[in-house]
Amino acid sequence: VLGAVTGISWGFMAAVIKELSSHLGGGPGAVLSNWSLYVLVAAGAATMLLASHALAAGPLAASQPGFTIFDPLSACLLGVVLFGEHIRAGAVDLAGETLAVAVVIAGAVVLSRSCLALGESRRPSCPPQPAGAARTAEEGSPA
Description:
The protein is an all-alpha fold. It has a domain at 2-87. Helices cover 75% and strands 0% of the residues. Helix 1 runs antiparallel to helix 3 (35-56) and helix 4 runs antiparallel to helix 5 (91-112). The chain is flat, with a radius of gyration of 19 Å.
């Protein structure tokens, strides 16, 4: 759940960055007087806190799929809702978009089942880890 919420937060950050970037042409005064800079700083700190809690809550395989899947989906949804962007709705376009979403989800699932993401090296299908890497994974410290 923390991984999914963090992914959604990163999608929100993309929307805030898009809003802020629209004021860059006005110079430093336009950027500093706009709300989006301050939302970017505050929400960015909160998003990084969420990400650190999500990564600390369990193995990488628990949080990474949520990051990977919900970040682009929430960014696209916010782009459509807040900025009036349009998703192409032609048959070929929709097929390509559907294929892209399926590849992202499949990639997240495959990577989340990786021996390295799970911290496992004892399964027959997993390559052996160097001695130092196995010790740090067992101790719970970051590799």
